[in-house]
């Protein structure tokens, strides 16, 4: 197949999940050439129809044979699938953008947020890791602080929506909420998210942490190229549907003025400042849902370090936290390569 045609074939693994669906919507909005679109999913989704750029596409059961001649392969399935088959897709010459955790900490694979470190993408390897949703929105803000004031330490608590755990978990929250409103049922308080907050996100990791916390800590260090950055995360699942929030305190190397930071962030690509203290107007998950920017507000002195800053960050975890970031990577590479 000619190179021109090859550049226009897009394969999407996990096309019917929350992130996969968001990738389809995002690709419709961005100028990535697509001559043929191949949506792949598990057997239970085989035969479903997906509308994309005015055409109807039938979901096919996952098979690596579809990687042949693809220019782009987006993975939004399970970690094990990515670990086994991302290298297969890359060996066929495709650019592979993986939304799982499989390659994020691989020293040979770039972990990319386009506003920060697109230059880490060379011509090889062709596997690019998409960071964790909570890492992306935090890194976008921290990169600006690093560049202008230096960064010594970060303390962050995340408020992560149900959709971050997948469609089944999101549906369970909705169903459990109806159950509570109808009289309570037999929900287990420590496990059901309905009208609840659960400070245990992911699997048990190390040093009394959970995997969502160590992911964020390690990924932010890698994205910002600050291997020795002191960072501590506490991840909490909260009963919102879409949109992750983060409460952040940072210690900077230089004195920092909150008003200067508001101006800096307001002029930054991909960032929206909403910080009206008199009218109590700040970013919320409902506000961030279905929007592209990383939203930031409550920018103020923390009062715990000599040079410090506190702020609140919100983003749509399915868009900038996953699908949008992945598509932005592909569009930027395509532009860089003159296609």
Write a brief caption for the model.
The protein contains 10 helices and 14 strands.
Main sheet makeup: 6 strands, parallel
- Element-by-element helix/strand order: HEHEEEEEHEHEHEHHEEHEHEEH
Structural class determined from secondary elements: alpha/beta
Please compute the radius of gyration using only Cα atoms: 20 Å
Low-confidence stretches: none
Mean pLDDT: 94
Terminal Cα separation, in Å? 17 Å
CATH class division of the largest domain: Alpha Beta
Number of continuous helical runs: 10
Helicity level? 25-40%
Taken as a percent bin, the fraction of beta residues is 15-25%
Return the domain count: 2
The CATH topology label of the largest domain is Dihydrodipicolinate Reductase, domain 2
Name a few traits of the molecule.
339 residues, alpha/beta, Rossmann fold, Dihydrodipicolinate Reductase, domain 2, six-stranded mixed β-sheet, 10 helices, 14 strands, 32% helix, 22% strand
Describe the overall structure.
It is a single chain. By secondary structure, this protein is of the alpha/beta class. The chain folds into two domains: 144 residues, NAD(P)-binding Rossmann-like Domain (Rossmann fold, 3-Layer(aba) Sandwich), CATH 3.40.50; 183 residues, Dihydrodipicolinate Reductase, domain 2. Helix content is 32%, strand content 22%. The strands form three sheets. Strands 5-2-1-6-7-8 form a six-stranded parallel β-sheet, with helices on both faces. A six-stranded mixed β-sheet has the order 10-9-11-14-13-12. α2 crosses α10, α5 runs parallel beside α7 and α5 packs across α10. The longest helix is centred in the last third of the chain and has 18 residues. The chain is globular and about 55 Å long. The two termini are 17 Å apart. 45% of the residues are buried.
């Amino acid at each position: 197949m000619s190179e021109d045609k090859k550049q226009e074939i897009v394969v999407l693994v996990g096309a019917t999940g929350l992130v996969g669906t968001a990738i389809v919507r995002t690709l419709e909005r961005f100028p990535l050439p697509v001559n043929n679109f191949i949506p792949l999913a598990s057997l239970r989704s085989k035969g479903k129809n997906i509308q994309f750029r005015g055409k109807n596409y039938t979901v096919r059961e996952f098979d690596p044979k579809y990687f042949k001649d693809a220019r782009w392969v987006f993975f939004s399935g399970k970690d094990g699938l990515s670990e086994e088959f991302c290298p297969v897709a890359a060996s066929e010459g495709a650019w592979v953008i993986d939304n799982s955790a499989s390659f994020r900490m691989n020293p040979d694979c770039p972990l990319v947020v386009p506003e920060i470190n697109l230059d880490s993408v060379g011509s090889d390897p062709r596997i690019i890791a998409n960071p964790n949703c909570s890492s992306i929105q935090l890194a976008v803000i921290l990169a600006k602080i690093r560049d202008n004031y230096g960064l010594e330490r970060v303390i962050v608590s995340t408020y992560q929506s149900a959709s971050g755990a997948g469609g089944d978990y999101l549906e369970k929250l909705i169903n459990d909420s109806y159950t509570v409103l109808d009289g309570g049922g037999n929900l287990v308080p420590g496990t059901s998210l309905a009208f609840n907050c659960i400070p245990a996100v992911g699997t048990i990791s190390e040093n009394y942490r959970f995997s969502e916390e160590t992911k964020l800590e390690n990924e932010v260090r890698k994205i910002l190229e600050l291997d020795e950055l002191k960072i501590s995360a506490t991840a909490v699942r909260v009963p919102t549907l879409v949109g992750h929030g983060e409460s952040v305190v940072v210690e900077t190397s230089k004195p920092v003025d909150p008003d200067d930071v508001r101006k800096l962030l307001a002029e930054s690509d991909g960032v929206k400042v909403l910080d009206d203290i008199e009218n109590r107007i700040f970013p919320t998950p409902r506000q961030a849902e279905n929007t592209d920017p990383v939203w930031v507000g409550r920018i103020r002195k923390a009062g715990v370090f000599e040079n410090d800053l506190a702020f609140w960050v919100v983003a749509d975890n399915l868009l900038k936290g996953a699908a949008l970031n992945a598509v932005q990577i592909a569009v930027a590479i395509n532009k860089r390569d003159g296609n």
